[in-house]
Specification:
The chain is of the alpha/beta class. Helix content is 28%, strand content 24%. The protein starts with a strand and ends with a strand.
C-alpha cells in the first residue's frame, strides 16, 4: 500500500526561505510519525502564496533553484517521492506555475506547467505563461498524472493523461 503525506502550510508574509524551512520541518515531523512514507505532497505556490502577484517576478526561480534543490535533497534523504506543489518557475523571461515531482534519488522525475490559468479575481493569466504539455510520470508507485488547481475544471486534461497511462492524478 502506498503511504502518502499531505503537507499543508499557512501562507504568511514570511520569506520564501522561512516557508521552505517550515515545509522541511513539517516533512520531517510527518516522516518521524510514519517511517514508511512513499509520497509527500505540497500545495500550489506554497513557497510564495498564490495571491502574492506583485512578488511573482522577483520570487521566480528555475527548476534548479533553491526551493526544488532543497526538496530534492530531502527526497533523497527520506527515499521518498515529493510532489513539490508548485512554484513560480522562471525560464528566460517567461514565468510559469510549475509543479515538479522529485524522485527518491533526488532528481526531477517530471515537471508540469499549469495549462489552464485562472483569471477571476486573479492576475495569474496576466503574469504567467500557460503550459502546453500533458504530463504523466511512470514511477514505482504507478503512473502519475500531474496537474494544478484550476486544471480540475477541464476534464479533457485527465482524459489525455489516462490515454497516456495515468493511474493516479496528483493535483
Amino acid at each position: 500500500m502506498t503511504r502518502v503525506v499531505l503537507v499543508q502550510l499557512e501562507i504568511t508574509t514570511s520569506s520564501k526561505e522561512e516557508r521552505l524551512g517550515h515545509a522541511l520541518e513539517l516533512i520531517d515531523r510527518a516522516k518521524a510519525k510514519d517511517k514508511d512514507v512513499d509520497l509527500i505532497l505540497l500545495p500550489e505556490l506554497w513557497n510564495l502564496g498564490y495571491f502574492e502577484f506583485a512578488r511573482y517576478r522577483a520570487a521566480a526561480e528555475p527548476l534548479s533553484g533553491p526551493t526544488l534543490s532543497a526538496l530534492a535533497a530531502k527526497a533523497q534523504e527520506l527515499r521518498a517521492y515529493i510532489l513539490a506543489g508548485s512554484i513560480v518557475e522562471r525560464e528566460e523571461e517567461r514565468l510559469y506555475n510549475t509543479s515538479a515531482l522529485i524522485g527518491p534519488e533526488g532528481g526531477i522525475v517530471a515537471a508540469y506547467r499549469k495549462i489552464h490559468l485562472f483569471s477571476f479575481h486573479s492576475r495569474e493569466k496576466e503574469l504567467l505563461a500557460p503550459g502546453d504539455q500533458v504530463v504523466v510520470a511512470e514511477t514505482e508507485l504507478g503512473t502519475l498524472g500531474l496537474s494544478i488547481c484550476y486544471d480540475l475544471r477541464f476534464p479533457e486534461l485527465y482524459r489525455a493523461q489516462v490515454d497516456r497511462g495515468a493511474e493516479v492524478f496528483l493535483v
